Amino acid sequence: MHAPRLFENDESVRRIGEGLLDHSLPKAEWTHEAHIAASFWLVAERPDIDVDAEIAEIISGYNVATGGVNDDANGYHDTITRCFLAGVRAHAMLALGGTLADRVNALLESEAGRRDWPLRFYSRERLFSVEARRGYVEPDLRPLP
């Protein structure tokens, strides 16, 4: 199992989220942990952003701005993103105490923060299909939380 890289403080989490929004986050720092931290920050601290309506555009725009592409094999993956968002939201409802970094780190150390967490809900074939990358598909193993 891969040990997650944890965040030292609230500012390090906010820097990731703000860097995603304004495209200033270096591409090398757009890691799994950064995806989780940015998602948690958006849900917990940015009520002005409709995450469900805007997340595809936010991440796709960041990918392009940092030299990436969003196609059938690379870039934004809608189903994986929305699966992790379900885990982020479930964790946010339970993790009401502590600092922002504490809550993000607890999420990263939980089942929902694991890189392979979506495979609890999706078969590998379904999750990694072009259809799942391009748009949300329902789980085929069990419902999301």
What descriptive keywords fit this protein?
145 residues, 7 helices
Give your account of this protein's structure.
With 145 residues, the chain is an all-alpha fold. It has one domain. The chain contains 7 helices and no strands. The protein has helices spanning 10-22, 32-45, 51-65, 78-94, 100-108, 124-127, 130-134. The two termini are 23 Å apart.
Give the arrangement of secondary structure elements.
Elements: H1 10-22, H2 32-45, H3 51-65, H4 78-94, H5 100-108, H6 124-127, H7 130-134
Q: Cα distance, first to last residue?
A: 23 Å
Regarding quaternary structure, what we see is single chain
Number of helices: 7
Radius of gyration: 14 Å
**Basic shape:** globular
State which percent range the strand residues make up.
under 5%
Mean pLDDT: 96
Structural domain tally? 1
Low-confidence runs: none
What structural class is derived from the secondary structure elements?
A: mainly alpha
Compressed to H and E, one letter per element, the order equals: HHHHHHH
Helix content: 40-55%
Largest sheet: none
Number of strands: 0
Task: Summarize the entry for a quick read.
The protein is an all-alpha fold. 53% of the residues lie in helices and 0% in strands.
